[in-house]
Amino acid sequence: MTTTVFPAPALPCLPVRGSSAQFPVHRIYCVGRNFADHAREMGATVDRGNPVFFMKPADAIVPGGGRVPYPPGTRDLHHEVELVVALGRDAHGEVATADALSLVFGYGVGLDLTRRDLQAAAKAKGMPWDTAKGFDCSAPASELVPVAEAGPVSTRRLWLEVNGQLRQQSGLDQMVFTVADVIHELSRLYVLKAGDLVFMGTPAGVAALVPGDQFRAGVDGLVEFGGHIA
Ligand code: MN
User: Fold this and answer.
1) What separation in Å is there between the alpha carbon of 157 and the centre of ligand 1?
2) With CB atoms counted within 10 Å of each terminal CB, which end of the chain scores lower, N or C?
3) How many angstroms is it from 30 CA to the middle of ligand 1?
4) What's the average model confidence in pLDDT over 200-225?
């Protein structure tokens, strides 16, 4: 057995519907500008040839939602509700689009929390988005629903309510890059592994969250979760 110089931290995990076993999170990949209406509201255009990717640390997960601390260093925390895709198998090299869905373990819903002010400053200087996107507790996410139970997701509706008011909603058929497209493109850039999560991008309606806000997010007929900003 390997000894470690201090106790190794527990793996970040998500609950799995219908199972006492948890899903251990390896990496969190995120897709930017995957809904044309959101790209427009951000003053950007969708590049249909090149998806925008960025990452969050695995331990940014807030499993099952609940209490989400308001992060330091921002005065403009934004919600982005997103479909979450969980991979249950390792890829071996580049994955063809036609084979990509065979890697999927299940689906959930999550929030890609964003320090919008830091992102705007980074964009203005042509600098990376890491401090805007990859902070602690920036990825609250639901339980995962295994594919056999989930069925096809592309026909379902993604939504987010804050304090009971609908803030974001869209059919998942509005995604510019499908789940299979995104897995294919990621596999050309990274070694994809079981345990990887992909946050699939958000539709229009992103806006601020403040301490005390209650959120509830879901994909119709699939999964829901909620929490509050503390
Ligand atoms: Mn996003």
Assistant:
1) 17
2) N
3) 6
4) 98
